[in-house]
Structures are given as structure tokens and as C-alpha cells.
Design a protein that fits this description.
Length: about 375
């Protein structure tokens, strides 16, 4: 039985800041952000948007069959509750029916991959059922911090089923875990702490480890891949990983893999880090930008979550896969976003749901998107569809 990704969709906020504006405000060279880091724009998140609203918006773009849906697995490291799964809010907002398992998975940027693998195993055990996988995050480091240029937000949602129409997941995952302290977020704050340089070294070390083991255990090599997709905390990070393996390819393959990488980085350049959704935004970007993909092409995927877990696996394109994509829709939503000044971005950044018991009302002037958090009343988050 073939199991894989039947549908995929993405959503982000309706606000962004241009990184040339940010560079100027921070006294940096714009080229550092656009070339050195490899980012052009960054999603800005009003307090009325979070992983629930973004995840529900992305999932609302899929065609779900409540009679077949058996699992909602939401990967995130920006959870809105230490106990309750955000998947339950999504279930209600999308009216998905009660006969499901609904859970939240956490391991930094790896949570979405954990959810995808859980969904694959679920469908293997229940071939008639569908699983909804959501990878949603808000990447926040703080104003004028080294990580600021690598912030971002959004969600990727996927339907996993038997006989998928988009991508078949191969049973070839190689995963590696080790307790390291490269990036983390204590529960009292919404801002991540990172040992920046160290984290980039660990990302590359984990990639080299799983790539070497993948080749040894599967007998496959770089020539077997049409494209490689990477977790993209910022696009230069993925480019550095790609450059590590390019010498294994012929000159013609090197050019093809580099061009595929550019296609996979296009959306990330405009949105920033989605943490656990970043790898899948890169995959969507590849599928919606590369013009030479064909049925049977194998795509390699490297997932990295700080802390840290790394995994390399592959998927192959299915017959008629292009009918499952909506490049024009994704692009038009990105193009329709409102560009904020740096002062406006800072003001939106600082208006946030407090880490405390006080009631809170989000600014209705910033309500946008399909779902909103209107506020917090009596320590309960209030979500609704956006009028
Ligand atoms: P930094 O110290 O500000 O930047 O931090 P830099 O000085 O290293 O410069 C960055 C690059 O810009 C360098 O290129 C410079 O040469 C270049 P590189 O040597 O890396 O190739 N540069 C220029 N290029 C062109 N024109 C110029 C110019 N000036 C400089 N004028 C850092 C960068 C990424 C460390 C920081 O932003 C940070 O801490 N980010 C957060 C951590 C992070 O993203 N780590 C990535 C790996 S860990 C991961 O992926 C997991 C994660 O997603 C979390 C999770 O799992 O949940 C983060």
C-alpha cells in the first residue's frame, strides 16, 4: 500500500516587514539580510493570530472528509496551552466531528515531521482513514536580537492517506537524536533563546550524520534525487547544507539541485522561519515553483529540530500530482499582504497576549484571515471565524 501526502496547503499572516527596511533600522547592511541570511520579507503576527488560527486557516484550504478523518496531529513549539492540544481548537473551528484522535506534538522544528510520521503509521494501521497533519509556529526572538532577522510565522497543513495523489512517503527514514542546548524556550516566555552559531553547526552536523547513514542503509546516493528540501530557519542555512553534498553530484546534477533549491526557498524568503512548518513550506515552494518535476521523481527531505532531532527521508511524486497544487492561490495571498513600517512592526510585536491571568482583548483593527483570537476571558482563549 502506498501512503503519503494527498493534499498540502499553507497560510500565514496578512502583515509583513521588508527586511531591507529592518536592516536600515538596525544599522545593518541590507545585503547581510538578503544575501548573508537569505531572507527578503518576514511575516508579522498580530496578537489575534496564533498557531490555532494559522493552523485552522491552512487546514481550511484542504478538502477533508470528516467520515474518514481519524487523526489530527498538530506539531508546534509555540503551543498556547501547556496541557490542552491546540488540535482541539482546530477541530472545533473546522467542525471536524468528534470521532478523532486530536493531539499536539513538540520537539522544536521537528514536531511537524513527528506528526507526519505518526500519521503515516496511523494510515498503515487504518488504511481507510485520513490523517490531518498541521505544522504551525510563530518564531519570535525579540526586537533587535541576532535572531530577529530569522523570525516568521505560518502553518502548513497536509492530508495523509493511502493512495495519495501528491507524494508517496518512502519507508526509508533515518533519524538521530541527541540532548544538546542549541536553542530552547523556557515556559515563562514567548521568546526563544538560541546559541546562534552553535545551532548552525549542530544543524549541519546532524544533516551529515543522517545523510551518511541514509546512504549506507538504503544504498541510494545523490544521483537518486531530483531535489533536496531542508528545514529552512533562514534560506542560507539550507543552502549551506546543500553545499555540503553537492560535491557528490555531477556538474549537471549540481546545477539541477541548486535550481531546485532556489525553487524550494522562494516562499521562505518571503515569510521567514515557520519553525516546524519550514521544511514543508520549502516542499510546497519546490512543487509550486519548479517547472521540470515529473511523476516518479524522488525528493529528499531533511528535518531538524533544535535540542535536537534530525531526520532524512524521501517521497516520490505521484501521477497527476500537479492537480493537487495551487501556486496562483498561494502567491496571491502573499502578494496581498500589507507591508508595515518598522515602527508599526515593533508596535504589533509588543502588543501580545500576556503571560498571566489578566483578561486581554486583541485589536479588532488587525483582525484578518479566516480565524481570529478575539482575546482571553477568565484565562480561556476566545477563538472564532473572522466575520
Ligand atoms: P549573526 O551573527 O547576526 O550573523 O547571526 P553573521 O554575522 O553570522 O552573518 C550571517 C551571514 O551574513 C554570514 O554568512 C555573513 O558573512 C553574511 P555565512 O558566513 O554564514 O555564510 N554577511 C553578509 N553577506 C553579504 N553582505 C553583507 C554581509 N554581512 C554579513 N554585507 C544567526 C546569524 C543565524 C546566528 C542568527 O540570526 C541567529 O541566532 N538565528 C537564530 C538561530 C538559528 O536560526 N539557527 C539555525 C540553525 S538551528 C535550527 O535551524 C532550528 C531552529 O529553527 C529552531 C527549532 O528547531 O525550533 C532555529
Amino acid at each position: 500500500m502506498t501512503i503519503g501526502i494527498d493534499q498540502i496547503a499553507f497560510d500565514t499572516t496578512t502583515l509583513f516587514v521588508d527586511l531591507r527596511d529592518l536592516a536600515q533600522a538596525r544599522g545593518d547592511e541590507p545585503d547581510k539580510y538578503t544575501i548573508g541570511i537569505g531572507q527578503d520579507q518576514q511575516a508579522v503576527v498580530p496578537s489575534s493570530q496564533d498557531i490555532v488560527t494559522l493552523g485552522a486557516s491552512a487546514a481550511s484550504r484542504l478538502t477533508l472528509d470528516p467520515a474518514r478523518l481519524g487523526l489530527i496531529a498538530l506539531g508546534t513549539e509555540s503551543g498556547v496551552d501547556a496541557s490542552k492540544a491546540a488540535a482541539l481548537y482546530v477541530q472545533r473551528l473546522l467542525k471536524l466531528g468528534p470521532w478523532v484522535r486530536a493531539v499536539e506534538l513538540k520537539e522544536a522544528c521537528y514536531g511537524g515531521t513527528a506528526a507526519l510520521m505518526m500519521a503515516r503509521d496511523y494510515v498503515a494501521a487504518h488504511p481507510d482513514r485520513q490523517a490531518l497533519v498541521i505544522a504551525a509556529d510563530v518564531a519570535r526572538y525579540g526586537l533587535a536580537t541576532p535572531g530577529e532577522v530569522t523570525q516568521g510565522a505560518g502553518a502548513v497543513a497536509m492530508v495523509v492517506s493511502a493512495e495519495p495523489r501528491l507524494l508517496a512517503l518512502s519507508d526509508d527514514s533515518v533519524h538521530y537524536a541527541e540532548d544538546i542546548q542549541d536553542f530552547w524556550r523556557p515556559v515563562y516566555t514567548d521568546r526563544a533563546l538560541a546559541r546562534g552559531k552553535f545551532s548552525t553547526e549542530q544543524y549541519l552536523r546532524f544533516f551529515n550524520l543522517v545523510w551518511a547513514r541514509y546512504k549506507a542503509t538504503t544504498g541510494r546516493g545523490i544521483a537518486d534525487f531530483k531535489a533536496l528540501c531542508f528545514h529552512l530557519p533562514y534560506t542560507k542555512m539550507g543552502l549551506k547544507a546543500l553545499r555540503q553534498v553537492l560535491p557528490e553530484a555531477t556538474p549537471a546534477q549540481q546545477a539541477a539541485l541548486s535550481s531546485a533549491f532556489t525553487a524550494s526557498a522562494a516562499y521562505s524568503r518571503r515569510v521567514g522561519n515557520l519553525y516546524t512548518g519550514s521544511l514543508y513550506l520549502g516542499l510546497l515552494s519546490l512543487l509550486e515553483h519548479a517547472s521540470d518535476l515529473a511523476e516518479g521523481d524522488r525528493i529528499g527531505l531533511f528535518s531538524y529540530g533544535s535540542g535536537a532531532v534530525g531526520e532524512f527521508f524521501s517521497a516520490t511524486l505521484q501521477p497527476g500530482f500537479a492537480a493537487q497544487l495551487d501556486a496562483a492561490g498561494t502567491l496571491s495571498r502573499l502578494d496581498a499582504r500589507r507591508r508595515l513600517t518598522v515602527a508599526e512592526y515593533e508596535s504589533v510585536f509588543n502588543d501580545k497576549v500576556p503571560y498571566g491571568p489578566a483578561d486581554y482583548e486583541a485589536d479588532p483593527a488587525l483582525f484578518a484571515g479566516r480565524f481570529v483570537l478575539t482575546g482571553v476571558t477568565g484565562q480561556e482563549r476566545q477563538y472564532r471565524a473572522n466575520a
